[in-house]
Write a structure and sequence with these properties.
Elements lengths: L7 E5 L6 H14 L3 E7 L6 H16 L3 E6 L3 H12 L3 E5 L8 H8 L5 E4 L5 E5 L3 H6 L9
Parallel strand pairs: 1-2, 1-4, 2-3, 4-5
Antiparallel strand pairs: 5-6
Helix pairs in contact: 3-4
Length: 149
């Protein structure tokens, strides 16, 4: 059962085209009747005027959908995202599909948070794939990992 305070969390990078992810997350949050949160974690070497403009744009979009927007700076985005997602007890996570250069973000999230459902969205805004926890694992009552944020 989904807790009404367990948000849909949308993980975005500092790119304006991540708006597709936020729109999908917003739609899912409405259907689940849960809050929307948008999360961006940037390595410190990726801070630039362009990334700032993209973050401002995505912040405005998230705010327009009634969502909360969170930005962190860290050189291990997947680990910080996993900690944040676990702490918030996300009902679902929306992520973009990786481009040619991948940093293992999806694999890390899947490994650290096997009980959290997530959906990857492609560049056209379509579902590339979804991962849902197996009913057997959920029935076994495996606790979610604890992370310090």
């Amino acid at each position: 059962m989904i807790n009404s305070t367990s948000p849909v969390i949308v993980c975005v990078t500092a790119q304006k085209n991540c708006e597709k992810l936020i729109k999908v997350g917003y739609s899912l949050s409405l259907s689940l009747n849960v809050p929307l949160e948008v999360l961006s974690i940037l390595p410190s070497d990726q801070i630039s005027r362009e990334s700032g403009e993209a973050l401002d744009y995505l912040f405005s979009l998230a705010k327009g959908f009634g969502g909360q927007y969170n930005v962190f700076f860290h050189n291990d985005p997947a680990l910080i995202a996993a900690a944040y997602i676990a702490k918030k007890k996300a009902s679902h996570v929306i992520i973009g599909t990786p481009g040619v250069r991948t940093n293992g973000f999806i694999g890390t999230i899947k490994t650290l948070l096997p009980e959290t459902p997530f959906t990857a969205i492609d560049a056209q805004g379509n579902t590339a794939f979804s991962v849902t926890p197996s009913p057997a694992r959920k029935l076994a009552g495996n606790p979610a990992p604890h992370f310090a944020v």
